[in-house]
Amino acid sequence: MTYVVGDSCIKCKHTDCVEVCPVDCFHEGPNFLVIDPEECIDCSLCEPECPVDAIFAEDDLPDDQQHFLALNEELSQGWPVISEMKPPPPDAEEWTEVKDKLKYLER
Fold this sequence. Notes:
alpha+beta, globular, single chain, Alpha-Beta Plaits
């Protein structure tokens, strides 16, 4: 099993989660983070750190976000690893309550 970054992270991209990851499985894109399922050791340390509740255990991934499992796997293959916390985007708070943000994902 792996952990999966879902819709809530798009355009919020808080990086609190990356500092607690013992295996550096997070990868950073322009406005989204993903978890490499091959590297994730299912430690669950990242999930409570996310201020927008964007991280789910694979088994707890909501039905309407199942496509994020494949998306995390795909994007983690091309995006660089991130292991240190960075400031969120300046407009992150404006995006916190927005739903269905996949159309805003920058690859």
